[in-house]
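Entry 12.
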Amino acid sequence: MIRYASIIKLAALLVLAPIVIYVLSVSDTIGLYKEYRQAGESSVTSPIIARTEDFSASAPMLSSGVLMRIISGICTESKVTVGSFSPEEVGREGDLRLVSAQLCLTGDFVGLLKVLARVEEINDVKISGAEFSTMKVGNKDKTIQLELTVVQVEDHKL
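Predicted 3D structure (tokens):
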């Protein structure tokens, strides 16, 4: 039996090492890739069209909170929670104001993409930045956080 100990150790190493490596490092990546593929299959792709329109002044949506009312339905449907919403006036000229708002959203990747697509559909509000990050909740659970920056030129005469 002692004569075959090294062969048994080598066989165990060849069988167990790939399993341990997969479980510890590759399984999370494969899970995220499967979620990405599922999101790609469920979303509707549209051709990219160059936008030539300029920012035009419109009724206040960020400073009055109308944007949050618009996306609240898709947030509850997609199980996305709004962590914070903070509008801030960046500049002013007469009745026109440039307002920027930071939204902090948490949820799963597919739900966050649905909310992001809904915000893109709103003509008066433009997305100036979006940053995804992962947060670890508990031992195994991970949630994704989206920090979204949107801007709007508001006409307070309307």
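Annotation: The first strand starts at residue 81 and ends at 93. Confidence is low (pLDDT under 50) at residues 48-55.
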